[in-house]
Each structure stands twice: as C-alpha cells, then as structure tokens.
C-alpha cells in the first residue's frame, strides 16, 4: 500500500431485501493508490462504490475515510461527499449550463469559493483534461468522451482526496475511450487516490496498484495486476478473464 489508509472498509454487509449484495467486504485503499475493481455484472461493484460515498447505507461493518467514520447526515456528510469525487458511466452534466459553469458550480455552492476563483480554477482543470477551448459550449455540443472529461474536471474542482470511477468509459464509443483513460492515467501518475470499476484491462494492467475481483457480493481476489492477470487463483476469476481477454 502506498502510504496511510485513506479508505477502509471492514466487515461491510449490505442487503437489498433478500439479496446480500455486499458480503463481509474488507478493502483498504492507501493514499495515492489506484485500485481497479473488476468482475461480472451484478456482482456488487457499483454498490460498493456507492457505499464508500454513502449513497447507499450499509447494514453492518465500518467504512472510514482517513481514519474517520463516514458521517451519517447533514453538513458533515456533504463535506465528505465533496472529498470523495465520483465519476459515473453517464456523465450527469447540467444540460442548460455551459461546460465552465458545470465545473464551477459545486465549488461555489459547497466550498463557498468566489465565482472568480472558481472560474479560474475551472479553466485550469479544463485545460488539464484537454478542453480549454470548450469552456463556453454546452454539454450537448460535446462528444461523449469530451463530456466525460468535463465530468472528471468537475470532480477535481472540489479538490477531492479520492476519486471513484464507476465504469467511466462503458457508455462511450470505442474511439473515445482512450482520451478518457489517458486523463485517468495522468491522474494516477500524479498520485490521485482512485477506485476504478472498469472492464478496461489495459488500464488495469498499466495504472492499477491492485486489482480487486468481485463476484456475487464478495471480494474473491485482491492482488497486484501482474499476479491477477498472469495467475488468477480462483476458478471464478479464471472463467471471467477467459471471456473478456
Ligand atoms: P455491478 O455494479 O457489479 O454490476 P451492482 O452493485 O449494480 O453490481 O448490483 C449488485 C446487485 O444488486 C444486482 O443483483 C442488482 O440487481 C442489485 N441492485 C443494485 N441496486 C439495487 C437497488 N437499488 N435495489 C435492489 N437491488 C439492487
Ligand atoms: Mg455497476
């Protein structure tokens, strides 16, 4: 692990009615670490990400962020959510706001930054994701790959301690996947703590410190990418890899 534990899940269980969707999950993500979560559809990957951000409540176990339990509600919860940015498969940009306004919004509303300061920072971040020239456009005028890069800039605008990505390239046309993965690779190199649910095995191999294989609500393997891809230990992971590689 690179440095102290930033995200720590201990004995986490969650149910959707009868469905035991997270089963005794233990997962530690160190500061600066990139953890890729892979596994079959319905295995609980999205629910795990959402639990880290408390978009889903858990039934038992603990989740801590930099050693502190996740807040239950109110301002403390909003603050925590701002500290852990989330990037979804669907970009969820505000259609009636410009790209710049999308990136500025939360820093002004939640962080109480001045508009000038937020705009300056937003332009910096748009430049970083290769979209400086698109600042005054509306989301619908951008390609899917560009919209997803705006969503990443928007998450970064909150100066998060960690970023969660839930299949960030799954809704994109193939030719747009790389431009998004390149931005993510760059963030990884810069030391951003990242949890990434993805089927992009090239990204997992090159950017991940660890690969977590999840199936049926359980973490089945949690290993380095080299170990996982060259010699998966479980039948479940071997079967999964043989289908996607
Ligand atoms: P993955 O992201 O690995 O595909 P999910 O975390 O989305 O898996 O879902 C895990 C299981 O939980 C699936 O069987 C799914 O149908 C179920 N599930 C997800 N969200 C809900 C919900 N809000 N209510 C009931 N069941 C859900
Ligand atoms: Mg999912």
Automatic annotation (TrEMBL):
<dbReference type="InterPro" id="IPR050086">
    <property type="entry name" value="MetN_ABC_transporter-like"/>
</dbReference>
<dbReference type="InterPro" id="IPR017871">
    <property type="entry name" value="ABC_transporter-like_CS"/>
</dbReference>
<dbReference type="GO" id="GO:0005524">
    <property type="term" value="F:ATP binding"/>
</dbReference>
<comment type="similarity">
    <text>Belongs to the ABC transporter superfamily.</text>
</comment>
<keyword id="KW-0813">Transport</keyword>
<protein>
    <submittedName>
        <fullName>Amino acid ABC transporter ATP-binding protein</fullName>
    </submittedName>
</protein>
<keyword id="KW-0472">Membrane</keyword>
<keyword id="KW-0547">Nucleotide-binding</keyword>
<dbReference type="InterPro" id="IPR003439">
    <property type="entry name" value="ABC_transporter-like_ATP-bd"/>
</dbReference>
<feature type="domain" description="ABC transporter">
    <location>
        <begin position="7"/>
        <end position="241"/>
    </location>
</feature>
<dbReference type="Pfam" id="PF00005">
    <property type="entry name" value="ABC_tran"/>
</dbReference>
<dbReference type="InterPro" id="IPR027417">
    <property type="entry name" value="P-loop_NTPase"/>
</dbReference>
<dbReference type="InterPro" id="IPR030679">
    <property type="entry name" value="ABC_ATPase_HisP-typ"/>
</dbReference>
<dbReference type="InterPro" id="IPR003593">
    <property type="entry name" value="AAA+_ATPase"/>
</dbReference>
<keyword id="KW-1003">Cell membrane</keyword>
<keyword id="KW-0029">Amino-acid transport</keyword>
<keyword id="KW-0067">ATP-binding</keyword>
């Amino acid at each position: 692990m690179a440095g102290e534990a930033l995200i720590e899940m201990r004995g986490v269980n969650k149910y959707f009615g009868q469905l035991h969707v997270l089963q005794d999950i233990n997962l530690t993500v160190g500061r600066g670490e990139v953890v890729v979560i892979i596994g079959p559809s319905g295995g609980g990957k999205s629910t795990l990400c959402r639990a880290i951000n408390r978009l889903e409540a858990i039934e038992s176990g603990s989740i801590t962020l930099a050693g502190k339990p996740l807040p239950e509600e109110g301002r403390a919860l909003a603050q925590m959510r701002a500290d852990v940015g989330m990037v979804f498969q669907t970009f969820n940009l505000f259609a009636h706001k410009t790209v710049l306004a999308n990136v500025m919004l939360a820093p002004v509303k939640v962080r109480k930054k001045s508009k000038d300061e937020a705009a300056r920072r937003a332009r910096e971040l748009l430049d970083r994701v290769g979209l400086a020239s698109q600042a005054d456009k509306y989301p619908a005028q951008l390609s899917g790959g560009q919209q997803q890069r705006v969503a990443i800039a928007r998450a970064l605008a909150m100066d998060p301690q960690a970023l969660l990505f839930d299949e960030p390239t799954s809704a994109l046309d193939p030719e747009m996947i790389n431009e998004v993965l390149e931005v993510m690779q760059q963030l990884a190199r810069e030391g951003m703590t990242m949890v990434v649910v993805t089927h992009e095995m090239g990204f997992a191999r090159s950017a991940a410190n660890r690969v977590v294989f999840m199936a049926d609500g359980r973490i089945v393997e949690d290993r380095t990418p080299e170990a996982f891809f060259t010699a998966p230990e479980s039948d479940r992971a071997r079967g999964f890899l043989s289908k996607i590689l």
